[in-house]
Amino acid sequence: MAYKTINPYNNELIKEYPNATDAEISNALALGDKLYHQWKKEPVSSRQAKLHEIADLMRQKSEELAKVLTVEMGKLIGEARGEVELCALIADYFADHSETGLKPTTIKTTAGNAQVVNEAVGVLMMVEPWNFPYYQIMRVFAPNFMIGNPMVLKHSSNTPTSAVEFEKIIKEAGAPDGSLTNLFLSHDQVDQVIADPRIQGVALTGSERGGSSVAQAAGKYLKKSSMELGGSDAFVVLGDADLDQVIKTAARARAYNAGQVCTSSKRFIVADNLYDEFLKRLAAEFAKLKPGDPLDEKTTLAPLSSAKAKQT
Q1: By three-state DSSP, how is residue 153 classified?
Q2: How many other CB atoms are there within 10 angstroms of residue 137's CB atom?
Q3: Is 184 strand, coil or helix?
Q4: Bridge partners for 106 per DSSP
Q5: Given 87, 228, 277, 297, which residue is catalytic?
Q6: Pick from 46, 270, 310, 5: which is nearest to 157 by CA?
Q7: How high does pLDDT run on average in the chain?
């Protein structure tokens, strides 16, 4: 699997990255496992300030990080800035709320005293997609960082620089080595990492095909897994809807991130009495979109993430 940063606006190859070596994989797993056993002895609160520092650093480097997203997967520069801020908000949220949220919960029982205790389980692997290169990492990383699960990242092959930059932020903020380690893994290496006894679970966001492959490996080695796979959301317009509000929302729901969102409105189901007017007005909204360089603030419709995405 070739990890390449290719600007989807002009198909220019920016950088190519080699696959991880066996030594790099071994070192990542050893670092993560060592950190897990260290974190087990520390309270959740000990990581709070560091996660806030990660959020602060992302805001400080917002423009730099946003440009990486735009050049690498074609996201509009304004939307890219929004993704960076969303990541900072997620980090701040889990820094502020994890200690309370992870406290034991008492259960009423006639058999004696009982409670649910939330504890770290060990090193986890995340397999993430290209459509939100930072957000997809942060939403998994932040809560697991707080509870004490070190993470290994396998990002999409067309957003490798985003993975590199995210890992840099974690390190620059001073998080311990092994908190998050990015690895450019081949398909066979993904199975190899999942099989390792130090890996206790895997989280995947992506296609059904990718999810099926990873879930099969997780099942084979009895590893916990979570799968968020692609969908085709319906936008339903009932007969009494306010079309002024509907059209504004519908156009945004279809065109945001060039429509490359699992929750994008991909099917519009419209009541008969509104259908013709809905179609006419939505077409007019789409006609206003301005394709172009996603780094240009005037562009309102970004390119698809790759030539392959266009073909398929």
Answers
A1: strand
A2: 26
A3: coil
A4: 115
A5: 228
A6: 5
A7: 96
Dihedral pair phi/psi, residue 228, rounded to 5°: -115, 105
Active-site position among 16, 262, 285, 297: 262
**Beta partners for residue 123, in sequence order:** 199
Give yes or no for a contact between 100 and 128, defined as CB atoms under 8 angstroms apart. Answer: no
Q: Dihedral through CA 299, CA 304, CA 306, CA 308, nearest 10?
A: -150
CA angle 103, 105, 110 (to 5 degrees): 155
In the chain, the domains with their CATH numbers are 3-101+119-229 (3.40.605.10), 233-311 (3.40.309.10)
Query: Taking a C-beta distance cutoff of 8 angstroms, is the pair 159, 306 a contact?
Result: no
The answer to whether 12 is a known catalytic residue is no
Selection from 59, 78, 81 nearest residue 294 by Cα: 78
Which tens digit of pLDDT belongs to each residue from 46-58? 999 999 999 999 9
* Integer Cα distance of 293 and 68 in angstroms: 14
Per the structure block, which two tokens stand in for 237? Answer: 């317009």
Tell me how far apart the alpha carbons of residues 225 and 218 are, in angstroms, rounded to a whole number.
7
231-256 per-residue burial string, b: 16 or more CB within 10 A, e: under 16: eeeebebeeebeeeebbeebbebbbb
Residue with the two structure tokens 């950190």 = 35
262 is catalytic: yes
| Pairwise CA distance, residues 140 & 137, whole Å | 6
**pLDDT, tens only, 193-239:** 999 999 999 999 998 888 999 999 999 999 999 999 877 788 999 99
117: closest CA among 127, 107, 109, 128?
107
What is the length of the chain? 312
The set of residues, in sequence order, having a beta carbon less than 8 Å from that of 283 and lying 6+ positions away, is none
